[in-house]
Amino acid sequence: MTRYVASFEEYVDIIATESPHAAIMDWWRRLNLALDHYFKELGDRRGKPKDVERRIASDPRLGPEVATKIHELRLMRNNVAHKNVGPLSRELAIRYAEGALRLTWALTFP
Fold first, then answer.
1. What pTM did the predictor assign?
2. Is residue 99 one of the residues assigned to a domain?
């Protein structure tokens, strides 16, 4: 029987419970696509992570707080992807997804 979720909360709850690592990787990918969209709309090249964060920090619609949050989520994703971080909590994965969703909205609907 196929089950479809009806909300963000439902989706994130399921994936974060089943695989917190996958939830973080999934939501980084979504945020990464939003970053691509942001730079495409500006007609600008994306560049290295530090350049991305600097550009976003200087954008008056986004600012340093958004750049800092992107930096934090990128570091967490990199740790999950490339280091043996051990078990992750469901709650951490949910907070990560919520943060990535807020940033995705900020980047794509300023």
1. 0.92
2. yes
